[in-house]
Design a protein that fits this description.
single chain; about 35 residues; mainly alpha; transmembrane helix; transmembrane
């Protein structure tokens, strides 16, 4: 196991959940700034 980075420890579904969560947080921040 040569590669021992964060990506190798997470599967695609985990990355998908993380990305969706980040996008939701970003959207909330943008809405707060625009308001």
């Amino acid at each position: 196991m040569a590669e021992n980075n964060l990506a190798s420890g997470l599967d695609a579904s985990a990355w998908l959940v993380i990305i969706i969560a980040v996008l939701k947080v970003v959207k909330v921040i943008i809405d707060e700034v625009q308001d």
